[in-house]
Amino acid sequence: MTEQNIRIAIVGATGAVGTVALQLLKDRDWPAENIVAMASYRSVGKEIPYGDSVLTVVEATPDAFDGINVAFISADSSVSKALAPEVVSRGGLVIDDGSAYRMEPNVPLVVPEVNGADVEWHEGIISIPNCTTTPLAMALAALQAESPLTRVTVATYQAVTGTGASALQELKDQSAAIANGNEVSVEVYPHQIAMNVLPQVDDFQPDGYTNEEHKMINETRKILHLPDLPISVTCVRVPVPVGHSEAVHAEFANPISAERARELLGNFPGVRVVDVPNASVYPMPHTSAGLDEVQVGRIREDLSHESGISFWLSCDNLRKGAALNALQIMDEVVTRNRLPGAAATA
Fold first, then answer.
1. What global pTM score does this model have?
2. Buried/exposed code over 298-310 (b: 16+ C-beta within 10 A; e: otherwise)
3. So which residues are the catalytic ones?
């Protein structure tokens, strides 16, 4: 079986991440007959243009996965919990974009450039990290090749599409209302997001950190195979359509010069150094949107710590933060001959 003969199900095909996944498959000239667009019953029958073809959305039910080799699930955790075992029982591979399985000890959590070998031990389900974790793990992996990490502090600046298509529409509606002097309607977030910044992503826990912040901490440790790495995170939602950014301060066992850090980051797969600050050249959501690479800039030695490096990054949260990473995981599985069932041996 060639890779493009693999039958793929996109669960959440009408959502923000699912839409990008279909765009990426189209860019690969993936045959329409080997893609099944799935969503909830509310979207059944919806037609999605795909090149010269049209994909008709079917309901994501257990029987819909008969004959599916790879299911990419981009939906809430309850959907993943209900459907993933059904895919596995039918001999398919699940690549899950949600948080349902990320911290399960028998489920690999994978960024192929960092820990692609972890797909070797999957049992039918592989998780994609949070869209803020992926670029952070890539940058830290590049730098820790020089010296062991000892501590990381991160502040995120997260686009509304990290929440979904409804949040993007709310940002547009609120921006239009403000521009026209009308009352702002708030539904998706606890406060208006247009012309505002919310220091809350997900629900707060008793320790004062949010679920999103705990995800970044735990997932980064798992991906880097550093279970005791000290990490502190503050996650912030900003009025940006696409592109998450992060201010990162990383400490190491031994000093790393800014020049060496630029070299390490520039040579790491999937990372692009964009770092000419005197010319106002640095990563931004506006310039990272639509790109596959993680952009890293403002690279400098930390004045507060002799072995610290500070930097800024931006990444398209729908591409490398989600859909692209899923397809790269599939590629890794195929390359390592770890696709379950007949697809692995045909």
1. 0.95
2. ebbbbeebebbbb
3. 131, 244
